[in-house]
């Protein structure tokens, strides 16, 4: 059985990206680096000569430098996965949402992203891949919340973004999350507080900070949760922050403290376009 090096999820044969976190995979192992591709090309050239190269079309993979994009430079998903149109969008003003200041910080539903919103974050993966992830959030007919994510890859810049769908459902003991039809796992338990612990099949969680304040990309979030997650399958450790009405706003690797994900922007999305996206990628 093969596991994702980013989140520990079980990988089905033939996947290029993890269905849970979007991490690039190649047989469950990190992809070859540019140096290894170059070495492989040199060995093949020396062993088989110019004729073999011309017949088989072997060429060195191009090298590109990937720099972290500014929020204003975020590109929408490419042709194969059309993004939600930019028309009729307005800035997301959480202070204008009735009751947003009165929600209970112990209630796990407080930390779900707001339906009818588009979130963009920049993500760095353990294998060195990186790119912008755009997440569209909507409420569906059964009362749950669905988040449709479009993840770009620096390893495969010409490929369309990888699409993943997460569903959130409120149960008596907390909020459960389901990725792309997999079995549901506890996302946040009820009665959140400092030191609260819970487990899933592959990971263990603990609330390190409760009602904390965190600044991300010039925006300050209050009432945030800092949660440590240890992935038992791959031996990784991360800390992520959840802000009321936004969901995850930042994530850091536990061993190095390096930022692995941060929120770049949030905005409201037109209801008609939201319905089309949900119908296409998440069903009704």
Instruction: Count every helix, treating DSSP H or I runs of 4 or more residues as helices.
Output: 2
Order of helices and strands: HEEEEEEEEEEEEH
The CA-CA distance between the termini, in Å, is 33 Å
Low-confidence stretches: 27-40, 56-101
- Find the structural class using helix and strand composition: mainly beta
Provide the CATH top-level class of the domain at 85-281. Mainly Beta
Backbone CA Rg: 20 Å
Helix content: 10-25%
Could you tell me the CATH topology label of the domain at 85-281: outer membrane lipoprotein receptor (LolB), chain A
Largest sheet: 12 strands, antiparallel
Tell me about this structure.
With 284 residues, the protein is mainly β. The protein has a domain at 85-281: Clam (outer membrane lipoprotein receptor (LolB), chain A). Helices cover 12% and strands 36% of the residues. The protein contains 2 helices and 12 strands, in the order αββββββββββββα. The protein has helices at residues 34-56, 271-281, and strands at 117-124, 130-139, 145-151, 162-171, 174-179, 185-189, 197-199, 203-216, 219-231, 236-243, 247-253, 259-268. It has a 12-stranded antiparallel beta sheet, covered by helices on one side. Strand 11 and strand 12 (259-268) form a beta hairpin. The longest helix has 23 residues, at 34-56. Mean pLDDT is 76; it is low at 27-40 and 56-101.
């Amino acid at each position: 059985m093969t596991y994702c090096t980013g989140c520990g999820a079980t990988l089905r044969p033939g996947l290029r990206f993890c269905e849970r976190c979007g991490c690039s995979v190649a047989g469950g192992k990190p992809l070859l680096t540019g140096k290894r591709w170059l070495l492989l090309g040199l060995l093949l050239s020396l062993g088989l000569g110019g004729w073999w190269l011309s017949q088989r079309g072997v060429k060195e993979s191009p090298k590109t430098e990937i720099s972290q994009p500014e929020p204003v430079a975020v590109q929408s998903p490419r042709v194969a996965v059309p993004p939600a149109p930019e028309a009729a969008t307005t800035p997301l003003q959480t202070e204008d949402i009735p009751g947003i200041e009165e929600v209970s910080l112990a209630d796990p539903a407080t930390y779900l992203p707001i339906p009818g919103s588009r979130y963009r974050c920049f993500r760095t993966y353990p294998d060195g891949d990186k790119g912008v992830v755009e997440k569209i959030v909507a409420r569906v007919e059964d009362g749950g919340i669905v988040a449709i994510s479009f993840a770009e890859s620096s390893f495969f810049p010409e490929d369309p973004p990888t699409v993943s769908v997460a569903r959130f459902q409120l149960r008596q003991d907390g909020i459960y999350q389901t990725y792309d039809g997999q079995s549901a796992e506890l996302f946040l338990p009820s009665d959140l507080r400092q030191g609260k612990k819970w487990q899933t099949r592959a990971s263990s969680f603990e609330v390190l900070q409760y009602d904390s304040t965190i600044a991300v990309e010039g925006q300050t979030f209050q009432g945030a949760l800092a949660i440590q997650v240890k992935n038992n399958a791959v031996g990784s450790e991360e800390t992520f922050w959840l802000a009321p009405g936004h969901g995850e706003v930042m994530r850091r690797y536990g061993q190095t403290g390096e930022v692995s994900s941060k929120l770049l922007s949030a905005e409201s999305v037109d209801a008609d376009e939201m319905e089309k996206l949900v119908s296409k990628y998440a069903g009704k």
